[in-house]
Amino acid sequence: MLLNNILAFIADPAAGKEVADSISNELKYSASKLSSLSFDEIIQKIVDGAVDIGMRILIAIVVFYIGKLIINKIHSIVKNVLIKHSIDKSLTTFVLSLVKITLLFVLIVSVIGILGIETSSFIAIFASAGVAIGMALSGTLQNFAGGVLILFIKPYKIGDYIEFGTYEGTVKEIQIFNTILNTPDNKSIIIPNGGLSTGSIKNYSKEEYRRLNWDVSIAYGDDVDVARKVALDILRADDRVVKKYREDDREMRQNRNELAREEVQQAAEAETEHKKSWLGRTFSKKSKFKADVEKWKEEQAEKIEAKIPRVDCSPTVSLVSLADSSIVVSVRAWTRSEFYWSVLYDVNEKIYKEFPKNGLSFPFPQMDVHVTPAN
């Protein structure tokens, strides 16, 4: 009772006088009660109290460790469920952290209750401390809220290449308060989620296809038609470049991947067919049913996509400007996002090698000076 009054005083200092009087009365009552007892009775009460406290502590320790085992088991079950249902990796990490922290808080409150401390007073202390900490850490709470928004709205996910202000890199991890980017030269950049949830982000991985652009300068007097033919030949010979429609390119690559997967699957099935029991064949049928459902979903998505007008993404070569020392030809093409950098560098090199072979030159900056003789 005395400990509960002390906790109540800590939780609500405004009611200080009443609580202080109650504590004082408790102390006076305890002192008067002790003075009326003999020495043996005092020793007996101390021993009984020590045994009671010891038993409470022992039970609390046992409950704490059993509770931790249960929490770890629940954590493992939730993790397996999230992984089995292919939940986004960043959302999985967030949910697991939230579940573990919540269960640990409940366990600690339960252990404190076993020790004989009023949990209502303890929770009041936590609430008061939470308000104070919340006011002191308003920026951190903003980052927490930003992390929740990012996980549910998903402007980017783990593995995406993004740009935020002066920072850019691949998203390595989405934490509760921060997002960690990994730069191409393997540096880690930690950005608070608050700014990311309210600022402008460039996500280079969001779209399946990206357009490439090369601005090539050739000399005045060079044939633009020859430059166009050479550039288009380079692009059409590259299997990674979209030839006309993105939809056709996507279908071609999907068919190629499905054919490769079917060959691998058929080889694996042929190897293990004789080892399958009736139970294995049952699960195989279920897997086939799941595959049929996925195929039906893809067909429905294709029907919806067929109604959307297709955009011509054929490679183009255009004369864009007449500069001081050269004419500038713009070469444009589309490719899948994962091929962007490799196509960019490879075509750069091929243009540099093929243009001079066809009589095209890359001029240096130059200036014609005309000297007029003096009269």
Structural descriptors:
375 residues; alpha+beta; Helix Hairpins; SH3 type barrels; Alpha-Beta Plaits; 5-stranded antiparallel β-sheet; 3-stranded antiparallel β-sheet; 11 helices; 14% strand; elongated
Structural class assignment:
alpha+beta
Largest sheet: 5 strands, antiparallel
How would you write the strand order of the largest sheet?
A: 4-3-2-1-5
Tally the structural domains: 4
Query: What is the molecular shape?
Result: elongated
Mean pLDDT: 77
Order of helices and strands: HHHHHHEEEEHEEHHHEEH
User: What is CATH's topology name of the largest domain?
Assistant: Helix Hairpins
The number of distinct β-strands equals: 8
- List the uncertain runs: none
Q: Tell me the CATH architecture of the largest domain.
A: Orthogonal Bundle
Assigned CATH class of the largest domain: Mainly Alpha
Annotation field: number of helices: 11
Can you put this structure into words, describing what you see?
The protein is of the alpha+beta class. The protein has 4 domains: 100 residues, Helix Hairpins (Orthogonal Bundle); 50 residues, SH3 type barrels; 92 residues, Alpha-Beta Plaits, CATH 3.30.70; 32 residues. The chain has 11 helices and 8 strands. Strands 4-3-2-1-5 form a 5-stranded antiparallel beta sheet. The chain has a 3-stranded antiparallel beta sheet with strand order 6-8-7, with helices on one face. The longest helix has 46 residues.
